[in-house]
């Protein structure tokens, strides 16, 4: 199957899931995860009108998207993979959103690097909601602390937009559902308390579980394999 056919199929599935959940399809954005796939695969997706992409690794993303932007300046890139401090400098230059903010130290570095280039950047807070995932804020308290520091004005180049999670890799759909509902639950509480921010984004759902994520309130699904095929590591 081609990227074009895969994209069409995924969009049909998203619309169906929205219908089942009584949600408007326009409430769920599709982030195409292009890690390990080359520029030509990304360009196939762009040709179908896909402009929002996600990448895990900064070096790979930089190489690919600097080239892609020469002919498609309007593509938008989010960094979704766990981020080392020394990669933040390049990350903030190439993306509009870092979805994998999982510690306060990272907020400090993002602030520092964004201040240097006078750029504001959107962030999502990654939350650990499932047994097997390794990254993300581990509990509500640490997440709350990060938002509190943001609201105190410590990171004026950082724009908190919401939350991201990865469900555990399991066939147990109830565990997956629980992971997503935990994120939603945290988000609802924090939205109320930190109403000075617009914490509306709930980035959850991947190729194997996005229908469940949409039922649980996802506003952005991150899909790689179902669009681009299996990754060759
Ligand atoms: C790779 C990756 C995805 C996409 O996964 P697929 O199963 O290929 O759809 C989504 N989110 C994150 C954080 C990823 O690392």
What topology, given as strand order, has the largest sheet? 7-6-5-4-3-2-1-8
Estimate the mean pLDDT confidence. Answer: 96
How large is the share of residues in beta strands? 15-25%
End-to-end Cα distance, whole Å, is 20 Å
Associated small molecules: pyridoxal-5'-phosphate
Q: What general form does the structure show?
A: globular
Count of extended strands: 8
Name the helicity range.
40-55%
The helix count comes to 9
Residue stretches low in confidence (pLDDT < 50, at least 5 long) are none
Radius of gyration: 17 Å
Give an overview of the whole structure.
By secondary structure, this protein is α/β, with parallel strands linked by helices. The protein is built from 9 helices and 8 strands. It has an 8-stranded parallel sheet with strand order 7-6-5-4-3-2-1-8. Helix 3 runs parallel beside helix 4. The mean pLDDT is 96. Pyridoxal-5'-phosphate binds at residues 33, 35, 56, 80-81, 166, 206-208, 222-226.
Summarize it:
By secondary structure, the protein is α/β, with parallel strands linked by helices.
Comma- or semicolon-separated keywords:
233 residues, binds pyridoxal-5'-phosphate, globular, 8-stranded parallel sheet, alpha/beta, 45% helix, single chain, 16% strand
Give me the secondary-structure topology.
Layout: H1 3-20, E1 29-33, H2 39-47, E2 52-55, H3 58-71, E3 76-79, H4 88-94, E4 97-101, H5 104-117, E5 121-126, H6 140-151, E6 158-164, H7 173-193, E7 201-203, H8 210-215, E8 220-223, H9 225-228
Parallel strand pairs: 1-2, 1-8, 2-3, 3-4, 4-5, 5-6, 6-7
Helix pairs in contact: 3-4, 4-5
